Fold each of these.
Amino acid sequence: MSHPDETALLEYVAAAVSAEEHCRVDEHVAECDECLQRLRALFYLRDDFASVWASWTLREHGRLRRQVKLALALETVAESAPDFAEQARSWLGSIARSAVRAVNVLLDRAGETAGIGPGMLPDGYVFRLQPAVLGVGAPETEAGRRLLRTSELLAGGRINEAARELDEARKVDARLVQAAGSQITRQGKRQAQIVVDARRGYAALRYWPEEGEAIHGFVLLLPDTEPQRYLAAGLQSVEGEDFLVAEFRNVPAGGWEVYW
């Protein structure tokens, strides 16, 4: 049996499958630790975050899927990263009470192309793409339009199509797609800025916390293809600045989601 997809596992946990399908999943997870871990995360959400689980509809599927992915990563962080364990448990406990903030990032180090697209942001947050950084502007050109199209594709989780669009933009002006940036605002105030550089495998998030806001203390990068892997970086203050920054170096190529 092939690995069950997220919908099949959600229906299994919700007891919305036939007895035959239930047995097939049981037989699979008995031999597959990866899917067993995914199933455990779903049961964790069902049992501990009843309000989140009860809200699940087909339209809510994407949101719940992100919650599951993040919950699984935070459990791993709490177990394997002592420096972040307390913050990870706090974040895990707040998943059902707060909206997930995530931005999609694409890094292709072989082709030196980088893209950023909005992932999941709460109501009131505004994402603005800054197609290039490091002194290279974002002109109204074919390359610029292709970069905006890349952002739209990333927002829809269409990583392969986004990569092809970036490759076409690179043919027009390679400099534009080596690095990228974005800015996120709320009520007209800057909240976060994300910058990626494909040549160096570098990603960074700058965050401007609101007064009295509880900070999780670190940022997570989760790959689209292997949710059991993660990269975590602490949010550090910068002397003379009013923002916190988390930096990632030597990020492997591929599509990633930035959670903070």
Amino acid sequence: MAGAPPPASSTPRDDAAEIGHPRQTPIYHAHHADRYQRQELISSYEGRTGAKFVAAIDFIDIDFVLNLEEHLLNEAGDRELHLLLRSPGGDGEQAVRAIRVLQSRCSKLVLIVPDMAKSAATLLALGADEIRLAPASDLGPVDPQMMIGGRWFAAKSLIAAVEQAEGAVSANRSLTPLWASLLAEVSALDVQSAKAELKSTEGLIRQALSYRSTPPSDEETEQLVGVLLTALQEEPTTHGASLGPSELRRLGLPVVSVDPKSWEWECVWRLWALYWVQIGGPIYESSGASYRPGGPQPA
């Protein structure tokens, strides 16, 4: 009809949304398809559980907290935070700092360990309100580690070696050159630092427990600290000792054994498999952000 306005047409973006195309351009999306696949899984998990989900796969150092903060921006703290953690450990002070940050942004902190969370990462677990573990999940001792001569040593092993040397030399002076050679890279300052690190563990455990949403009572704290110091520092013969769900539950930790056949755990395991195959190194990721320390970043 003459004079009639032409029919309204959708913009290209509306058309793309209507037929399910990604909002990114085809080449950009292709370059980052792996990341989008993982973030779609995270969004599905959040939609199903109502929780905020963050994955952190890295050593725990001073940058660990900074990278977590990036994924907690605008979190009001009124919902659960589910943290998928895989870490061989790191700095205990930074682990406690991370607990403080995580707990300030949620109503309940749930730690999910599909593989391992050792040393300082185990310390971080002590501040969680719930620790979700499967049969393959693994926590470990919280004995401090020290680097000497480019190698890591457990602080208690270093002290034990020096004490053994002192005893051997005291009994037989002729052994002095042998022990001096074996401990050539260990200074008196190293020994004092090792003792100080061991002594600090109790305070870090207390701090971690106190940051829970519902901290244990003073009496419960004293009992837990004693049990945890014995089980996580004094008894393990190696830093690589493995503690699974049943052992950790007996220590009084809030461990929940997940159903490996549940939708939630399959989602977690699929994510972990993607990180293992696609990334093979450190990464911090949520539904809206992704960062790979030392790796290629989104343009």
Amino acid sequence: MTQAVILQHVAHEGPGRIVPIFRDYGIPIEIRRLYAGDEVPTDVDELRVLVVMGAPLGVADVDNPRFPFLRDEVALLKRLITEDRPVMGICLGAQLLAHAAGARVYPNTVPGPTPDAPPVPAPEIGWGPIRLPFPGGTEPVLAGVPDGAMMFHWHFDTFDLPRLPTPPPPPAGAPPAPPPPTGHVLMASTAVCRNQAFRFKQRLFGFQFHFEMDQTGIEAMLAHGREDVLKVLGPEGESRLREETARYLPRYLRLGERIIRNFVEYLKLY
């Protein structure tokens, strides 16, 4: 029987509300806890959908012997990309999906204060609005999500959008060919990180922001990421995040559930 397989990299970044919503649709689920020694699946015929979660790791760790599962994930993602099989990548999962599709993954930056100054690192931690560019904001997976919706962010890196291979040039004397298709759609951006969410081909989705979390998941992120919060947001960062969580969480939960249900229904996974 085909099933949803969820790849979890660390104990404190679980699948959150993806599990109960998938179960609402009768989708069998298996969570592979890679940090605990579970293996990356190799039988793609048994995969109804692959969900790749986040972690305080990066594409730069793919060849790190401490995390051998990352290389196996990239190999699996390459197979699923070739076949355009359903994938939902979140945070690190989106970065791994982009990397497996041949796109560049690198630290997120913004321009320096002067034209000749080097770029400035621009991590995103905490609550911030997403922008839905046209036509990406009209994607069925984002139906019901308004421009400016507050989402939860926790990342230092970003990625280029993956592209289909460039077709061969037309024969000599042939009329000019139209621009080749990119294969991707940019679905969401933020003020400091343009490539926040994308669709590649028809069934491959990457989300840099988190939409799947619940209160417990956010608390776990804060508990394990205090150094990041202090570094990026300063000494008042944690208290500010907690205040903002109380303010934004109820609507965030509704919108996150909408995205997950849209994903299931758009791909007809039930």
